[in-house]
Design brief:
The complex is a heterodimer of chains A (466) and B (210). With 466 residues, chain A is mainly beta. Helices cover 5% and strands 39% of the residues of chain A. In chain A, the strands form eight sheets. Chain A has a four-stranded antiparallel sheet with strand order 3-2-1-30, with no helix packed on it. A four-stranded antiparallel sheet of chain A has the order 4-5-6-7. Chain B is 74% helix and 0% strand. Chain B has nine helices and no strands. Classes of the chains: A mainly beta (466), B mainly alpha (210). Chain A binds chain B through residues 1-7, 9, 11-14, 17, 82-91, 145-147, 168-171, 175, 195-198, 234-236, 261-262, 463-465, and chain B through 22-23, 27-28, 30-31, 34-35, 91-106, 114, 182-183, 185-187, 189-191, 193-194, 197.
């Protein structure tokens, strides 16, 4: 039993209260070694503007093995523990669950008693995940009503189907496969839910053999990668509905449901259109008792000199935007879009979710542009905006520049030099780089997902309407 | 206070204690009211919640009375005490429940089932046993001739307990829904599971030694 006397102070019943949370003073960032020669790391970055070490890595904890490929990660517990149907408010938000996407090993770091010095306290070996859940390649981590939910891209043999499994939020034991009936779902990638509508949503990438040695162009051109959304009953754990975005669309990635639990809609990015190399953002929403999806944003490819392009893109004479991550502010008003190919970082006002309005655009890195950061305008950068995280009050946005070890060199053949940046957002729209914040990541590691102190826009879900 | 009244006050007091616990239902009623934008939903939701609670308590009370009639009461009482101690330990040690079957789109049947499960898992009915003994087995040597009265008194215990639980559930949920709002959860939601485990353990101990 949780023995805390009061709820964890970082839990909020609704999104409106969460927006009033104190600003984060540090961030956790996972970083991996693309050469798989030294262990991956969990870094702590100082994001307190008043601190003397602002914008610097102040601590790093190491994995016990090499080649794990730290990628996404999450908390053992969060605001969903206040939910009335499964109340566990006295469990602490304390442990970071960090899966190795390549090794299937899951590391657990304790952020107490010293939050800026997380300690490795538990390791779940890949065999436990395989034996108890029948899965491998753990990806997204979310804290929810039945414990820690983790999506997995492969089955125990490293093939399909992928799915979701559960872990205990206090003992970290793998409890087993989550879905009782997966229906037509085969590929896995991201997942999240609508707590107010008892619905879990999943998206699709592919099986491990389709990405662990890089993307396979023939499979993309044949539309063989994932292109569907799946909707499950969150409590019955049964597949309810599939939405196929169509055979022109490949790689359906990050799911960002509205935080407000009464709103039955969310946004998902599709990385590539086979017609014109554009990326797109889709809105899923409840319509007449079913789920439906609409393309609401299209981001076109940009023509480019083939001499500037990697072999895979030369024939197209264009840079695809490669939208590989999006994030929705806690007030559900602004959607942030990372274009890893072109180097654009876009802000849309999605107050009217069917009609997003572009309200801000920045450029950094990019396959052809190599745009610099204002902190050092003469230095071209590679990689592009990728994993993005938004503070709970919506005022600060952070992102890093690496996608995935095996895919990075297909688009940035010279090797990505890691960095992390911070953007300040205007409450009414518009944004600018914080010139004081540019973390040049120490080689050989490359940074990936970011988690902010106390929670952020993609860590918590809420049961109570604002 | 008369010795006759004391156990009834305990039955009602425990009903109030159970009603006060957010995990027993008032919070679910509030959340459903907020979701569906209606204070009437808060009132509607607490009926199946109270019925589910009552059903769970009824089951425990019926089982105890049946055993008390058939077997030696002293033995049943001590056995029940041991069950309570074990239950207290389980409530204390239990981690996160493994299965959540009812969510925010649920109807009356789901709420009934949810409340029944929550009350049963928390051993809500077990806490009533010390009060049940003086009320139903005042003359333990002579139960059989008064079976009808024992039964009706047992039913009255369930009614009084559940009535008190419903009253407190109603009061707290309307207060939170109409006046203070769910922000109060952040500060006022003390760890009642700890108090609960302690209450079970003390009840168990009393049954064993009394």
């Amino acid at each position: 039993m949780a023995t805390a006397l009061r709820p964890d102070p970082t839990f909020y019943p609704n999104p409106r209260l969460a927006q009033k949370a104190p600003p984060e003073t540090f961030a956790y960032v996972v970083a991996f070694d693309p050469n798989r020669a030294v262990p991956d790391r969990l870094a702590v970055v100082d994001v307190d503007p008043g601190s003397s070490t602002y914008g610097r890595i102040v601590f790093e904890a190491e994995a016990t093995h090499t080649g794990d490929e730290f990628h996404h990660f999450g908390w053992n517990a969060c605001s969903s523990h206040l939910c009335p149907n499964a109340p566990h408010p006295h469990v602490e938000r304390r442990y970071l669950i960090v899966p190795g996407l390549r090794s299937s090993r899951i590391y657990v770091f304790d952020t107490k008693p010293e939050p800026k010095k997380p300690r490795l306290v538990h390791v779940v070996e890949p065999q436990e995940v395989a034996e108890r859940a029948g899965y491998s390649r753990p990806h997204t981590v979310h804290c929810g009503p039945e414990g820690i939910y983790v999506s997995a891209l492969g089955n125990a043999e490293g093939k399909g189907p992928g799915g979701v499994f559960l872990m205990d939020p206090e003992t970290f034991a793998v409890l087993g496969r989550w879905e009782i009936d997966r229906g037509s779902q085969y590929f896995a990638y991201d997942f999240w839910w609508h707590l107010g509508h008892d619905t879990l949503v999943t998206s699709e990438w592919g099986t491990p053999d389709m990405f662990e040695n890089g993307l396979i162009p023939e499979l993309i051109l044949g539309a063989k990668y994932g292109r569907r959304l799946h909707f499950f009953d969150l409590h019955k754990r049964r597949h309810l509905q599939e939405i196929d975005l169509g055979d022109k669309y490949q790689l359906v990635f990050e799911l960002r449901p509205a935080h407000e639990p009464t709103k039955a809609y969310g946004f998902v990015n599709c990385v590539l259109s086979l017609e014109d190399l554009s990326s797109s953002i889709w809105l899923w929403r409840r319509e007449n008792g079913k789920w439906a999806a609409h393309k609401v944003i299209t981001i076109p490819a940009e023509p480019a000199d083939p001499d500037l392009l990697p072999p895979v893109l030369k024939p197209f004479k264009a840079v695809p935007p490669l939208v590989t991550d999006i994030d929705l502010s806690v007030d559900d008003r602004f959607l942030y879009v990372s274009c890893w190919g072109t180097g654009q970082f876009l802000q849309y006002d999605v107050s009217d979710p069917m009609n997003p309005k572009l309200t801000g655009e920045l450029r950094i890195g990019g396959i052809a542009t190599r745009a610099p950061h204002p902190a050092d305008p003469s230095r071209p950068l590679n990689g592009g905006p990728q994993m993005v995280e938004v503070s709970r009050d919506g005022r600060r946005i952070y992102f890093t520049n690496s996608l995935y070890g095996a895919v990075d060199p297909q688009f940035y053949p010279e090797g990505i030099e890691g960095w992390m940046v911070k953007v300040e957002a205007d409450p009414e729209g518009g944004m600018r780089f914080d010139e004081r914040f540019f973390v040049r990541w120490p080689a050989p590691h490359r940074p990936h997902q970011i988690r902010l102190e106390g929670g952020d826009a993609s860590s918590d879900s809420y049961c109570y309407p604002s | 206070m008369s010795a006759e009244l004391a156990p009834w006050l305990l039955v009602a007091g425990l009903g109030a204690f159970h009603g006060l616990n957010p995990a027993m239902g008032w919070l679910f009623a509030v959340a459903l009211g907020l979701h569906r934008g209606s204070g009437r939903v808060v009132g509607w939701a607490m009926l199946p919640i109270a019925l589910g609670h009552a059903a769970s308590v009824l089951l425990t009370v019926a089982l105890f009375l049946a055993l008390g009639v058939v077997l030696e009461l002293a033995i049943v009482q001590r056995a029940a005490g041991l069950v309570l101690l074990a239950w207290a330990f389980w409530v204390f040690r239990r981690g996160h429940p493994r299965r959540v079957r009812v969510g925010m789109t649920t109807g009356a049947a789901g709420l009934f089932l949810w409340s029944f499960t929550m009350a049963s898992a928390h051993g809500a009915g077990l806490m009533l046993l010390p009060a049940l003994i003086p009320i139903c087995f005042a003359d333990a040597s002579n139960v059989l001739p008064h079976l009808a009265e024992t039964t009706s008194r047992g039913l009255l215990v369930v009614l009084v307990h559940s009535g008190a639980m419903l009253l407190v559930t109603a009061a707290v949920s309307f207060l939170v829904y109409r006046v203070v709002g769910v922000a109060i959860l952040r500060s006022a939601w003390i760890n009642l599971d700890l108090v609960w485990a302690l209450a079970l353990a003390l009840t168990g101990l009393w049954l064993v030694v009394a």
